[in-house]
Prior knowledge:
Layout: E1 2-6, H1 10-21, E2 25-30, H2 36-45, E3 49-53, H3 54-60, E4 63-66, H4 73-80, H5 82-85, E5 89-92, E6 97-98, E7 105-106, H6 114-121, E8 126-130, H7 136-139, E9 151-155, H8 158-170, E10 178-182, H9 187-191, H10 194-204
Parallel strand pairs: 1-2, 1-4, 2-3, 4-5, 5-8, 9-10
Antiparallel strand pairs: 6-7, 8-9
The structure holds NADP nicotinamide-adenine-dinucleotide phosphate.
Residues 7-12, 30-32, 35, 67-70, 72, 75-76, 93-95, 97, 132, 135-136 line the site of NADP nicotinamide-adenine-dinucleotide phosphate.
Amino acid sequence: MKIGVLGTGMVGQAIAGRLVEAGHTVMIGSRTSNNTRAAAWVESTGPKATQGTFADTARFGVLIFNCTSGVVSLDALKMAGETDLNGKILIDLANPLDSSGGLPVLAFCNTDSLAERIQKAFPTVRVVKTLNTMNVKVMINPQLLPGHHTVFMSGNDPDAKSVAARILGDLGWKQESIIDLGDITTARGTEMLLPIWLRLAGALGHTKFNFHIVVGESSKQ
Length: 221
Ligand SMILES: NC(=O)c1ccc[n+]([C@@H]2O[C@H](COP(=O)([O-])OP(=O)(O)OC[C@H]3O[C@@H](n4cnc5c(N)ncnc54)[C@H](OP(=O)(O)O)[C@@H]3O)[C@@H](O)[C@H]2O)c1
């Protein structure tokens, strides 16, 4: 599949690289067409990798990943352009973290989420929020951790969530590890895991961990 990855940071590069390894053709997108991080990634990845602007990348991809800084993701998506995003699946893994003063804090939460803001700004885009609750090394290589652990998913479109689940499979995720939380408003819950995620990273002293939801028998019957 032709996939556009918006974002040239470590997450964009890691996701894009893993997707190429899984057989996809990937363009990585930036504010500029000649971003040097993207150029180095293309050079080291080979013929299935290209770079472009956010707009080039939205045009290229049948499916799009949002790997931009969460507090400016709406700006990046506006640069990508509504026309080229319309109707497409957008996998949003960004967190709206404000890192301007010490430990990052969510720029907004409780009654709102980045995923909802994206869905509201681009009503025909099929937004799926997933992968935002773990470190990038775990995202692209869940086998890094022993046993079962969880990846959450939120979105309004069931078909888009099925496609996103297949893409998670390409990244190495077992289908039974996915918990579909429901519509896009449920992304409030996963974005609000970031404060505890950050404190776990502090307490454990590293980022090689993930959430694992243990589910018992339902008592409703
Ligand atoms: N690090 C992790 O393990 C992890 C885990 C879960 C989720 N995430 C999320 O993944 C996302 C990417 O993280 P990252 O550390 O790889 O990169 P980042 O530094 O958060 O974002 C880099 C991207 O944001 C774009 N950007 C920066 N300022 C912009 C602006 N004013 N307007 C438009 N675009 C702008 C950059 O564009 P240029 O290419 O033009 O520079 C670049 O492509 C974040 O939302 C983060 O919360 C990260």
